[in-house]
Amino acid sequence: MEAVTGIGGVFMKARDPKAMEAWYRAHLGIDAKNGYVNFDWREKDDPERMGRTVWSLFPTNTTYFGSSTSPYMINYRVANLDRMIEQLKRGGVAVENVKDYSYGRFTWVTDPEGTRIELWEPRRK
């Protein structure tokens, strides 16, 4: 069975993203530049390989969360996006089209309570 390998990012909607950035910076030390910050880390089984978890704010009218009304979206890392997609489809889950970027491949699904989930297969370097 394909399984999530970690959390790739946490994304939240904010009525005033700039004010929220300032609050998180002042009170939690999260220094988001341009609405996001990368928390870098190393792979447990391959310490030479770097990874990252993204924390980001979006305006409440963002289209990035699709039709979800949830104020947050979690990005989960997966080892093999194609196998994960097949597994989800076999389970009756609607899967959006894959998008490819230089840093990985992505797709999105929505859980039974309407929260959008982003699945990410990072590119191997």
Structure, described:
By secondary structure, the protein is α/β, with parallel strands linked by helices. It has a single domain (4-122), classed as 2,3-Dihydroxybiphenyl 1,2-Dioxygenase, domain 1 (Roll). 18% of the residues lie in helices and 42% in strands. It is built from two helices and seven strands, in the order βαβββαβββ. It has a seven-stranded mixed sheet with strand order 2-3-1-4-7-6-5. Strand 2 and strand 3 (50-59) form a beta hairpin. The longest helix has 12 residues, at 17-28. The protein starts with a strand and ends with a strand. The model has no long low-confidence stretch (mean pLDDT 94).
- Tell me, what is the CATH class? Alpha Beta
Sheet of most strands: 7 strands, mixed
Strand order of the largest sheet: 2-3-1-4-7-6-5
Give the total of beta strands.
Answer: 7
* Mean of pLDDT: 94
The appropriate CATH architecture is: Roll
Count of distinct structural domains: 1
- For the terminal residues, how far apart are their CA atoms? 25 Å
Q: Quote the beta fraction.
A: 35-45%
Low-confidence stretches: none
CATH superfamily: 2,3-Dihydroxybiphenyl 1,2-Dioxygenase, domain 1
Percent helix among the residues?
A: 10-25%
Q: Given the C-alpha coordinates, what overall shape results?
A: globular
Alpha carbon gyration radius: 15 Å
Elements, N to C (H/E): EHEEEHEEE
Give the SSE map.
Blueprint (H helix, E strand, L loop, with lengths): L3 E11 L2 H12 L7 E7 L7 E10 L12 E7 L2 H10 L8 E3 L2 E7 L5 E7 L3
Parallel strand pairs: 1-3, 4-7
Antiparallel strand pairs: 1-4, 2-3, 5-6, 6-7
